[in-house]
Amino acid sequence: MMRTENHPTWLLPSGFEDILPARTEALEHCRRNLLDRYALWGYRQVTPPLVEHLESLLTGSGADLDLQTWKLLDQDSGRLVGLRSDMTPQMARIDAQTSASGEIRRLAYAGTVLRARPDLLGGSRAPFQVGAELFGVAGPEGDLEVLSLMVESLRHCKVPNLLLDIGHVSIPQALADAAGLATTQRNDLLRHVERKAWPDVRHWLQIHGAGQSLCTDFDALSRLQGDHDVLSRARQQLGHHPAIGKALDDLHFVWEALRLRYPDLDIQCDLSEIRGHLYHTGLLFSLFGPQRGEALARGGRYDDIGAAFGRRRPATGFSLDLKPLLRDLPESRRSQHIWAPAGSDQALWKAIAEQRQQGHVVAQDLLMGELPDEAQLKNRGFDALLEHSSAGWVLRFLDAR
């Protein structure tokens, strides 16, 4: 058993932190504004539970979320439950349970998720996740809407010089399918591709007797990263695979539309990217800010996840963690801060209530102390005070004489 005598009782577990008032106000301001913006696009907010049965939370994700999910025993049912590490599976469950056949459904969410391990060294194990999911649209038009909303989310958070990286899991998957492999071998090959371990990919193809044509295709795939001309090169080198031709059409459609909507947005692609290939089924996208090694927002298409809940539905979406963005969040509009003296005088109470109804912050002195001087009040962040006069309780600004 671990000894804890030397650990202060106030010390939080690694990866958890208190968010103090100033940062909490900034986070809440941006959370509310993002959800309001999503609502203008038709995305309605839902609030799923923090805990669900484990098999529901891990649907479609395989080991991707399994290692990140805290597991508990539900003493009521005796079943294993998990603390959500990502809200997307919950959105798919809600859509499958509540949407009508053929309905286009737009859902938004915001809340804390819990991770067994941080995504980055020294990172948070309790990200504050905000996102939007679109169900019922199978074509690239749905991906374009979600991508546009993701770009506008980070622009709203005042992140400059955004870089969008896009890919399509169908491209590496089509090459693996062309090898005619059993499921286990196919997944083994794709794991090498996911790690970008190209020497291992070439070695794997050789020892499994892949033909020269397929080896050439994978070699071409390893070099298909960069600007828009990558799509033309991919069509020349890999377009003989029908599934790849369709994926390139989708990428071209999205890319051209985004260039018109956001001319200053830098876009690049990596056609070998298959992050989460056991989960995603189409376009993948990540949005980066300046001097940030990790993506600030991620998303993609995941059409198969609803099948586990009884309804396979086209689905695409994105999510972001607000915590790393706190330093970039716009300052919320500050209300007037008013100091009021101690006392239970009814007229004073009415004056305080009137100021609060107008949206001003009123902090009443409860210690019956002497009136602080104006310099002290200013240092404590007050803009005005309530003082008694012949006309009753009136507001006086601290700079006024």
UniProtKB/TrEMBL annotation:
It holds the Pfam family tRNA-synt_His. CDD domains: HisRS-like_core. Pathway: Amino-acid biosynthesis; L-histidine biosynthesis; L-histidine from 5-phospho-alpha-D-ribose 1-diphosphate: step 1/9. GO terms for molecular function: glycosyltransferase activity. Residues 15-325 form the Class II Histidinyl-tRNA synthetase (HisRS)-like catalytic core domain. It is found in: Cytoplasm. Keywords: Amino-acid biosynthesis, Cytoplasm, Glycosyltransferase, Histidine biosynthesis, Transferase. Required for the first step of histidine biosynthesis. May allow the feedback regulation of ATP phosphoribosyltransferase activity by histidine. Belongs to the class-II aminoacyl-tRNA synthetase family. HisZ subfamily. HAMAP family: HisZ. This function is generally fulfilled by the C-terminal part of HisG, which is missing in some bacteria such as this one. Heteromultimer composed of HisG and HisZ subunits. NCBIfam families: PRK12292.1-1, PRK12421.1. This is ATP phosphoribosyltransferase regulatory subunit. It comes from Acidithiobacillus concretivorus. The gene is hisZ.
